[in-house]
Amino acid sequence: MISGLYSAATAIDVSNRRQEIASENLANLQMPGYRRRVMSQSSFDAVLQPMQGVYSSKLLGTVPNETQYDFMQGHI
């Protein structure tokens, strides 16, 4: 039961962060030279798998990765 709540809480946290980034991108849409921010996410298992000896089925949920700026050329 607790692991399900923890999994839901981390998903809400990641969703909240993604919403903040989207609103920041929309607020600065008309600003010249502004580069949008993007965020990626992964599961706890994917983050901990490279560490040797650290694996548990109790590690549930998602973790936000770093936010990055998108430097692709925009529409002219």
Keywords, please?
76 residues, alpha+beta, two-stranded antiparallel ribbon, 2 helices, elongated
Structure characterization notes:
0% of the residues are buried. This protein has 2 helices and 2 strands, in the order H-E-H-E. It has one domain. Strands 1-2 form a two-stranded antiparallel sheet. With 76 residues, it is of the alpha+beta class.
How are the secondary structure elements laid out?
Blueprint: H1 2-27, E1 37-43, H2 44-48, E2 62-69
Antiparallel strand pairs: 1-2
Short structural summary:
With 76 residues, the chain is of the alpha+beta class. It contains 2 helices and 2 strands, in the order H-E-H-E.
Helix count equals 2
Q: What about the largest sheet?
A: 2 strands, antiparallel
Mean pLDDT: 73
β-sheet strand percentage: 15-25%
Strand order of the largest sheet: 1-2
How many beta strands in the DSSP annotation?
2
Low-confidence stretches: none
In total, the number of domains comes to 1
- Judged by helices, strands and strand pairing, the structural class is alpha+beta
| Separation of the first and last Cα atoms | 52 Å
SSE pattern? HEHE
Percentage of residues in helical conformation: 40-55%
Cα Rg? 16 Å
